[in-house]
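Q: Could you fold this chain for me?
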Amino acid sequence: MNIWDKLPKPFLILAPMEGVTDIAFRQIIAKAGRPDLFFTEFTNVSSFASEKGRANALERLKIAPSDSPIIAQIWGKNPAHFSELAGALESLGFSGVDLNFGCPDKHVNKTGGGAAMIKTPELAIECFQNAVKSTNLPVSVKTRLGWAKPDEYKEWLPVLLSQHPAALTVHLRTKKEMSKVPAHYELIPEIIKLRDKISPETKLVINGDIKDRAHALELHQKYPEVDGFMIGRGVFQNPYCFSDHQPTRKELIDLLKMHLDLYEKYAGEHYEPLKHFFKIYINNFPGAKEIRAKFMETHSVAEAREILKTLG
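A: Sure. Below is the predicted structure, expressed as structure tokens.
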């Protein structure tokens, strides 16, 4: 059965974030209070299609039992490669395939992937159709309003909806806006109208500046036609954002201990990327700023554990 049809309304999703929503961090969020649906970090279809890059791609697509149900997000610009990776995902345990047509990273865009797809709609359709024909899984799309101007959504979103994706997630900013301006919530009613007119069966998901579960429910009261909400940076303010729980200092520290164990298990010697997670756990309690500064000076999981011993 289509996983999108099994979700409650509204459903909540942890946004795919490069360097953040890996197998270790997803287990942290599942422990704190899981969303209704997880997404992976995005995987390059051309890496999977190459003998040299496949091992790395498969590493990124590893999932834990607590991840289920989970959607694999993929990106690129080669339609044949979309077909190849989409065809492999069901056997890897995924419940769906999501095409990333919205990443604003300049390196991704330079290759023609991510948000650059907004500028090549015919290629985007070809990539989507190649994914659909190669899998039994539902295929969805995540994108932005446009490349430079918010009103580009009037032409771009109909292109995607014409393909009747299982779900369409719209980050309510353009590529050029990045996250430097507030999300354009004022456009939600018009986006709902487009969905209802062109592809009413497509689940509509809104992304951008959504803080937590309470905020998502507030938005749903205002826009009940929206099916789901995706939370990204909100997890940096509160890893319990998918629940109504306000964590204690001890609970946050216990989550960090768990993250250190998982990171050591999956990442081995690559310690530096772990540092951008410290602000998630060492935050919102007296002395947090000073303690976090100490963590930022560490060079190994062992050193981080020594600081944790002083925190109780």
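A (continued): Residues 240 and 247 are 7 Å apart (CA to CA).
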